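Recap for those who missed Tuesday's class. We walked through two folding examples back to back. For each one, the amino acid string is listed first and its predicted C-alpha cells come directly after. Nothing is annotated here on purpose, so try labeling regions yourself before you check the end of the notes.
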Amino acid sequence: MADSNLQDQQHPQWAGDRRIVDNLLAGEATDFNLAELARLRIRYQGFPGAKDIQQDLDKVLNQWQLTEDELFAKTRQLHQGQHVYHTKDSRQEDWS
C-alpha cells in the first residue's frame, strides 16, 4: 500500500509564484491580479505538492468573495477584450 504522505513535489516555479501569491493576498481584485490568480489556479490544479500555495490561492478567492467558476468567467472576458499581460513577445504567455 502506497503511503499517501510521501514527500510532496516541489514545483519548479514555486519561488516566483510564492512572491506573486503573497502580493495577491495583500492586493485587490484588479484585472491583472484576477488574471494572475486564474493562471496560478490552473498551474497548480492537481499538482501533488505546493500545498502552501494552493491553500493561499483558496484564501485569495475567499478574500475576493469569488468562486473558481466566477474567477474563470471574469478572466475569460478579460482575455477576450484585451491583452492582460504586456511582454516583449506578446504571443508568449506563461501557463506552465
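Example two. Treat it independently of the first, because the proteins are unrelated.
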Amino acid sequence: MTLKKTITVNLSRFFRNHTYTSKHGLAKGLKRRGGLAFLPSFIPRSTEMLKEEIFIETLDLTGKTIYDIGGDQGIYTLFFARKVGEHGRVFTFEPNPVSHLHIETNVALNNFKHVNVRNVALGDKAGKLTFAFLPNDPGTGTADPLIIEQIRKMPGATVTEVNVDALDNLISTASLPKPDFAKIDVEGLELNVLRGMRATLEQARPQLFIEIHGADLEAKTKNIREVVSFLLELDYQIYHVESEQQISRTNMEFAREGHIYCT
C-alpha cells in the first residue's frame, strides 16, 4: 500500500462518523457521513474530477431507472439519485455489509426516497460467494478469487460469505423495473454480472458504464477480451472513456485499464 493510500485510509477511519456536505466530486453539495470529501485538496485528494466523472456528468439521465451494481461507498448512488430527478429511480446492489450500511446512511441523510439499496452481489446465478475486504478500506471488497488471495495477505483482511443472484432472476422474481442505465464496478466479476443479465441486455438494451478490474495485467487483459466479446455479440457499441476510442475486437486491449461506455 502506498503512503498516500495509507494516509487516506487512516484519515477515513478517523472521520468515519463525521457528517458533512461534500465539497467536490460527483457528490458535491450532497450530505455524507465518512470519507474525505470535506477536506482541502492537499489532504490528500485532488479536487479535480477524474475523466470518468467528467464523462458521466455529461449524460442525460433525467427520469431514468439506474442500476448501480457494486455501490462501494455510495458516491455514484448519490450522484445518480440527484441526476435522475424525482421521476427517476436508483437501485443499488452492494454485498459488503459495511458498505451497504454506509450507502443507506448517506441516502437517508439526503432524504432520497427514490433509491433502493440491496445487500446482495450480482453474478451469473443465485447462491453464495466468498467475499473479502479490508474493514478500514471497504472499497477493496471483491469476490474475484485471485484478488481475494491478494487481500488475504493484508493486515485485518476479512473474509465472509455473501448472497449472490443473477439480475435476470431478480427482475423476474422481485418485480424490479428494467434498467435504462447500469453502472458496473464489481472488482473482477464483470463478465459474471453481464452473463446474469443477458436477457435484460437483449430486451431492455440499457446503456452500460463498466470499470474493468483484475488481479494483475494478465487478468485485466483476459477480462476485457471476454467482456468486449460478450457485448459485441449482443451488438453493443463500446467506447473507452480514458483513451476516447471506439473499441472493437482488434483494439480491445486499450480498454483493459479504466472504463467502457456501451450503447
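Answers for example two:
The chain has a mean pLDDT of 87.
The longest strand covers residues 158-166.
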